[in-house]
Amino acid sequence: AQSVTQPDIHITVSEGASLELRCNYSYGATPYLFWYVQSPGQGLQLLLKYFSGDTLVQGIKGFEAEFKRSQSSFNLRKPSVHWSDAAEYFCAVGNNAGNMLTFGGGTRLMVKP
Amino acid sequence: ETGVTQSPTHLIKTRGQQVTLRCSSQSGHNTVSWYQQALGQGPQFIFQYYREEENGRGNFPPRFSGLQFPNYSSELNVNALELDDSALYLCASSSGQHEAFFGQGTRLTVV
């Protein structure tokens, strides 16, 4: 069975500082990996995805993520955080069709001025 | 192109009642998935519909059921509501080997 672990429930960073959110997955085949962001009471917005190819993927809002098969990880990074990045971030793994997603528990990001 | 829309945005039901939630998929998308997100947790996959047929199901009891219509819109029905059914219900649509796009969700409160 596939699973996703986000070890950090809460993270607080200062505005302008760099950010890394951790994601570890368990999946039997080549995974389809996603990062979504959710503002309070809202739906999920896709930040980026990895299906195949280059293991460093670029997304929207200046985010990037690196797929490391040997570590079963797909960590999300941003070089300089903005106050508007404060939200809940979810890592997910999908089946072959990129659907039927299994989500991690989420990481809540707070940004200090 | 229109996005994924869900209705209603909020509703309150009494334990034991039945509820129907609706989702209009993004234009051109033929697959709809439903997720339940309890407070403070990640979304959990309920089921998926592809061309009006259930195409996959998560670990949810049979009182959670769904439909997909010829225009690819979808309904989620929950019978015999329990307090633990209180959650944000998210609909996502997709097409082929592409990522899913989510609606804003329906907040269900069971009292």
Tertiary shape of chain A:
globular
What's the count of strands of chain B? Answer: 11
How many alpha or pi helices of chain B?
0
Strand content of chain B: over 45%
Low-confidence stretches of chain A: none
Task: Describe the largest sheet of chain B.
Answer: 7 strands, mixed
Largest sheet of chain A: 6 strands, mixed
Largest interface: A-B, 24 and 27 residues
List the helices and strands of chain B in order: EEEEEEEEEEE
- Mean of residue pLDDT values of chain B: 94
**Rg calc of chain A:** 13 Å
**Contiguous uncertain segments of 5+ residues of chain B:** none
**Average pLDDT taken over every residue of chain A:** 93
The end-to-end span of chain A amounts to 41 Å
Helix and strand topology:
The complex is a heterodimer of chains A (113) and B (111).
Chain A lengths: L2 E3 L4 E5 L4 E3 L2 E3 L5 E7 L6 E6 L5 E3 L5 E5 L4 E6 L8 E8 L7 E2 L3 E6 L1
Parallel strand pairs in A: 2-12
Antiparallel strand pairs in A: 1-4, 3-9, 5-6, 5-10, 7-8, 8-9, 10-11, 10-12
Chain B lengths: L4 E3 L2 E4 L5 E6 L6 E7 L6 E7 L2 E5 L6 E5 L5 E5 L8 E8 L6 E2 L3 E5 L1
Parallel strand pairs in B: 2-11
Antiparallel strand pairs in B: 1-3, 3-8, 4-5, 4-9, 5-6, 7-8, 9-10, 9-11
Description of the structure:
The complex is a heterodimer of chains A (113) and B (111). Helices cover 0% and strands 50% of the residues of chain A. Chain A has strands at 3-5, 10-14, 19-21, 24-26, 32-38, 45-50, 56-58, 64-68, 73-78, 87-94, 102-103, 107-112. In chain A, the strands form three sheets. In chain A, strands 2, 5, 6, 10, 11 and 12 form a six-stranded mixed β-sheet that branches. In chain A, strands 3-9-8-7 form a four-stranded antiparallel β-sheet, with no helix packed on it. A two-stranded antiparallel ribbon of chain A has the order 1-4. The model of chain A has no long low-confidence stretch (mean pLDDT 93). With 111 residues, chain B is mostly beta strands. The mean pLDDT of chain B is 94.
